[in-house]
């Protein structure tokens, strides 16, 4: 099995990021669930992640990655030059997460917010956990 990405389902930037990942993950390594879904909430509980966390989360091989570590973990598996961003892992999370937190804090103002989670297309639906 691949990895699971938990994302903010009402965030336009997060939804666009999911679509971006799907296009660059032709093998279907990543599966998705919104943080707001029952599945997302169950996974947070199972892996001991606070429900208050406001971050992209990757669960891979029984490990949990948050914030910039999650984004860089994703980049490792994408096609094209995107995988080279994973080299940024050499920088301590304290520095990387500063930029991540800036975007996360402003994502609704900059990119907008939906009233509900996105509905995946029939083609994308197999990539989402119920």
Describe this protein's structure.
It is a single chain. It contains 5 helices and 4 strands; from the N terminus they run E-H-E-H-E-E-H-H-H. The protein is α+β, with helices and mostly antiparallel strands and 130 residues long. It has one domain (3-123). The chain has a 4-stranded mixed β-sheet with strand order 2-1-3-4, with helices on one face.
Q: How many E strands?
A: 4
Main sheet, how many strands, which sense, barrel?
Answer: 4 strands, mixed
Q: Please give the radius of gyration in angstroms.
A: 14 Å
Helix content: 40-55%
Strand order of the largest sheet: 2-1-3-4
**Beta-strand content estimate:** 5-15%
Uncertain residue segments: none
The tally of domains stands at 1
* N-C termini distance: 16 Å
Give the mean pLDDT.
85
Number of discrete helical segments: 5
Classify the secondary structure makeup into a structural class: alpha+beta
- Indicate the overall shape: globular
- Helix and strand run: EHEHEEHHH
Pfam families: DCC1-like
InterPro entries: DCC1-like, DCC_oxidoreductase
Organism: Neobacillus driksii
Protein name: Thiol-disulfide oxidoreductase DCC family protein
